[in-house]
Please model this.
Amino acid sequence: MTQPTDFERRIMAEINRWAARIGADEGPPAFTAAILRNGEEITRGRNTARVDGNPTHHAEIVTIGQAADALGTRDLSGCTLLSSCQPCEMCLAAMRWAKIDRVIFGAQQTDIDDQMFRFPGLTLPDFHQACGGCFDYAGGVHDDIVLHLYRLQD
Model:
């Protein structure tokens, strides 16, 4: 586990509030993400899968693509991925392909519906262990803002 910086906590609060607004306007779930590097925000994005019908357009995937475009490289080493919800398996893989080695998120898998994950039996520590600890992570950051978006059974 890692400790988010004050800047990361501030941006997490912003993207979580954005997800809550999207959820209020369009219905839950709503996902948002941001990419940071060297103490500045590179980009932020949201899940567009419902809008454009592409199931791969999760907030993290969209945001990783935007960051690669903005930085002119697919190597996002030194970047931090922020997400309103713990990244799913696909998004964790994309994060690793982009060489992002730090992820901070709001809602945690243990606190939300299993349907938010295609392999709910695999946990973040499983992925962390499978890559030999190749990324740092922190969850539950400002999760009080977004938990209701990912608890569809309530």
